[in-house]
Specification:
This protein has 10 helices and 11 strands. It is of the alpha+beta class. The protein has a domain of 163 residues. The protein has a 7-stranded mixed barrel with strand order 1-2-3-4-5-7-6. Strands 9-8-10-11 form a 4-stranded antiparallel β-sheet. A hairpin with a 3-residue loop joins strand 4 and strand 5. Helix 6 crosses helix 8, helix 8 crosses helix 10 and helix 9 runs antiparallel to helix 10. Keywords: Capsid protein, Virion. It holds the Pfam family CotH.
């Protein structure tokens, strides 16, 4: 443990390898490093990860070591609280949508302090094994073409491939083909028996819980990317897992304070619109939102997690010279999150009262 009270992880990398990473921050090539965790040393590989954050002075990283073990270290550079991802995944787990585990760490880089990071569990085969979930595939949604539509948002033309926007992490060509068929199936003409098809290929309850989580936390970027799909082994149905929830709880993915009403109660993407086209699904979803408003999505329910994270983080943030936000802003963030929850609850309640069809 460090003097800041967080677990200390250490990276040793030679200058030439580090410079190679920095020469092309958009490359996904790995560099060899030495990794120290809990006093044990490992030979490891490290790469820069993320989207727009790759251009930031403080990078985020993906580390592979041991027997297929993977860690994600997020700088959370745009989030002055450093807890929005962690708090969001905590909330998803509370509403029974499996989400990555997280913890804050203190990183040393070639013997020098590198500041506070959020360590995020990788969504991979071991993610499912730890939870006793049977899965036969895993697909990452990596850009906004993962919107379940036939149309490319950039070109406004039919997509060259319906697998565009996705990255196959586990499976084979039939895995790709099944997802392409699923996307094509949900976009067939109205006479197609879509409700039966959705019931057979999509875990609707899991999807609606995920939708509620994204809507309540306010992740505008979470509907057309930043999620993972897997096929549940026993049922053969698609289920969904959240990923990258830094832009939530009252700030967007660039750290700007945003309206608590930014995200529609009905969410976004083609699959969501298809599911909510059915009255039974709308009723199920609205009842789910009401239950969450009555219990888990309240400041009383969420405050203990915020308090616990801040108790561990505060001494380290005071010593972290790598942050772009002043310490005073960090201290004010719990109040901003509390206000967001209050405003978001009022917005959702008002929309539920008018959404009766």
């Amino acid at each position: 443990m460090s003097q800041e009270g967080l677990p200390v992880h250490k990276i040793t990398i030679n200058d030439a390898d580090m410079q190679q990473l920095l020469n092309d921050v958009w490359s996904n090539e790995f560099a060899p490093v030495k990794l120290e965790l809990g006093g044990k040393q490992y030979e490891a590989r490290l790469r820069i990860r993320g989207g727009h954050t790759r251009n930031y002075q403080k990078k985020s990283y993906e580390i592979h070591y041991g027997q297929g073990q993977i860690l994600h270290w997020n700088a959370e550079f745009d989030d002055p609280s450093m807890i929005r991802n962690a708090l969001s995944f905590h909330f998803f787990n509370k509403i029974q949508v499996p989400a990555p585990r997280t913890r804050h760490i203190w990183l040393e880089w070639n013997g020098q302090p590198h500041g506070v990071y959020l360590e995020i569990e990788s969504v991979d085969r071991k993610f499912f094994l730890r939870r006793g979930i049977g899965s036969r595939s895993l697909i990452y949604a990596v850009n906004d073409n993962a919107n379940f539509s036939l149309i490319d948002e950039d070109t406004e033309q039919r997509k060259v491939s319906l697998f565009s926007g996705y990255r196959l992490m586990r499976g084979n060509n039939y895995t790709r083909l099944r997802l392409v068929r699923f996307i094509r199936g949900i976009n067939r003409p109205p006479k197609w028996p879509l409700r039966v098809y959705l019931a057979r290929r999509l875990d609707v309850r899991n999807y609606l819980k995920w939708l509620a989580g994204a809507v309540l936390t306010g992740n505008y970027d979470g509907f057309e990317q930043n999620y993972a799909l897997y096929e549940h082994r026993a049922s053969g149905k698609y289920r969904i897992i959240p990923w990258d929830y830094e832009g939530t709880w009252g700030r967007n993915c660039y750290g700007k304070v945003c309206s608590s009403g930014l995200v529609s109660i009905r969410g976004y993407n083609t699959l969501t619109s298809k599911v909510l086209a059915y009255r039974a699904c709308r009723i199920l979803y609205r009842n789910l939102l009401r239950r969450l408003l009555a219990g888990k999505f309240t400041w009383t329910a969420i405050k203990p997690a915020v308090t616990a994270m801040y108790a561990k983080l505060t001494p380290a943030i005071q010593d972290d010279f790598t942050r772009k936000w002043p310490f005073e802003t960090f201290q004010q963030e719990p109040e901003l999150i509390r206000n967001y929850i209050k405003e978001r609850r009022a917005i959702i309640r008002a929309e539920l009262r008018t959404w009766t069809e």
